[in-house]
Amino acid sequence: MKVAQRINELLKAKKISKREFAKRLIDLDMRTTKTGETPTESSVYAYLNGNIEIKADMIPFIAEALNVCEQELFTQNTKDTFKILAKIYPGNALYTRYNHIVQLLDYISPKSLETLEKTLLQHKNKTLELDKIIEKI
Hints:
Elements: H1 3-14, H2 18-27, H3 41-49, H4 59-66, H5 78-88, H6 94-104, H7 110-136
């Protein structure tokens, strides 16, 4: 599936009009690599229709405008990603749990998401500190 098709699917699923999407990209001050200019609404339509190729440097802006992670622009759903991981790491029950947690994130409030992110970052930092201590031993 082409990225433009996936973007159109996400727009439909999120009930975002092409006009609103174009406005979001323009507001993010995305610049094209060829001209260095912010794309116009009509050029965004051309990207969405597949008439202009979407460049790799546009992906972060598109993901931000859609409020999705960049990976979601390349897979139809997160279940596909976790199926691939499950094949790579067979028998690891954690991937089933990760998948479940990712699915639940659709229902999290912005404040709870912020709290979760802070908690996970604190856990990461403590784990890295512990790893450094263990390396010294």
